[in-house]
Design goal:
about 300 residues; mainly alpha; Farnesyl Diphosphate Synthase; two-stranded antiparallel sheet; about 70% helix; magnesium
């Protein structure tokens, strides 16, 4: 399938504005029904970590997947926003001194630098719990069974067997808990499928869940998401080696300095590029039964490996 990069980027930016507006509303200062209070410093830190930056690729995937089945509007927007809140929480915590110890994120001070470590931990915790509140709320979908599936899927993607588990494997791969040696390719793929791929995969599947798609179509979106997630991480690792900090809005070269094993190390730059191309083809093949309706999702896979930040 052909890719019109400029048209796709326009779509991505337009949807990012909609997501920003949704997040802005969710992270307002006014106390909501069922709440006792919203501490101003905590809200400010949450807003710093979640607003004003990012491509919002995950919620875009949710919306694009829902549109495959003729569904648009508030349901996929809110489901995508919940996924984005989880992603933002993970960045706030990843930047902490105990994790990656980063001072910059999206060209601005990280939350623990703009506020303090304790506030950053609480802001991440609050973003994470807010994500589940949003996903489980009746405003996200009128069908409680759909909300239940969305909430369960998000928990699995974000937790022990997904993103958090992947982060644990990543810390171990740095040698923090003893000598580990060079990771085998299969181990690298498992780590990356958990840490990065699980949430991206669920973002695509969530659109199908919102739309009430059948098991076959959901499986197609999962296959697409897994291939896209793997390609995304390889592209990210290449950017860490080749991009400059100003373009990235954060420090680069830290993975190599920390001794993290990546597929770029295992395959080399040229091999990594070939693997990205293979994964993009795999993602497109998963969507082939949808025909031209899946063009936007195919474009997202191409964008993932072509991005420069």
């Amino acid at each position: 399938m052909s890719t019109d990069t400029s048209s796709f980027v326009d779509q991505l930016l337009r949807h990012a504005e909609a997501v920003e507006g949704c997040l802005e509303g969710l992270l307002g200062p006014d106390v909501q029904s069922g709440e006792i209070g919203r501490p101003p410093r905590l809200i400010a830190a949450m807003r710093h970590g979640a607003l004003g930056g990012g491509k919002r690729l995950r919620p875009f995937l949710t919306a694009a997947a829902a549109r495959l089945f003729g569904i648009a509007g508030e349901a996929p927007l809110r489901a995508g926003a919940a996924i984005e809140l989880v992603h933002c929480y993970s960045l706030v915590h990843d930047d902490l001194p105990a994790m990656d110890d980063d001072d910059l994120r999206r060209g601005r001070p990280t939350v623990h630098k703009a506020f303090d470590e304790a506030t950053a931990i609480l802001a991440g915790d609050a973003l994470l719990t807010l994500a589940f509140e949003v996903m489980a709320a009746p405003q996200t979908h009128p069908d409680p069974a759909i909300r239940g599936e969305l909430t369960l899927g998000l928990a699995r993607a974000a937790g022990l067997g997904g993103m958090v588990g992947g982060q644990m494997l990543d810390l171990a791969a740095e040698g923090r808990y003893g000598e580990t040696g060079v990771l085998a390719q299969d181990d690298i793929r498992t780590l990356q499928a958990m840490k990065t791929g699980a949430l991206l995969t669920f973002a695509a599947e969530a659109g199908a869940i919102v739309a009430g798609a059948d098991a076959t179509d959901r499986a197609r979106l999962v296959a697409y998401g897994k291939a896209l997630g793997a390609a995304f991480q390889i592209a990210d690792d290449m950017l860490d080696r080749e991009a400059d900090a100003q373009a990235m809005g954060k420090a680069v070269g830290k993975d190599a300095a920390a001794g993290k094993g990546t597929l770029v190390d295992a395959l080399g730059i040229d091999g990594a590029r070939r693997e990205c191309a293979r994964l993009v083809s795999e993602a497109e093949a998963a969507l082939a039964p949808f025909g031209a309706k899946a063009q936007t999702l195919c474009d997202a896979a191409h964008f993932t490996v072509a991005r420069r930040n």
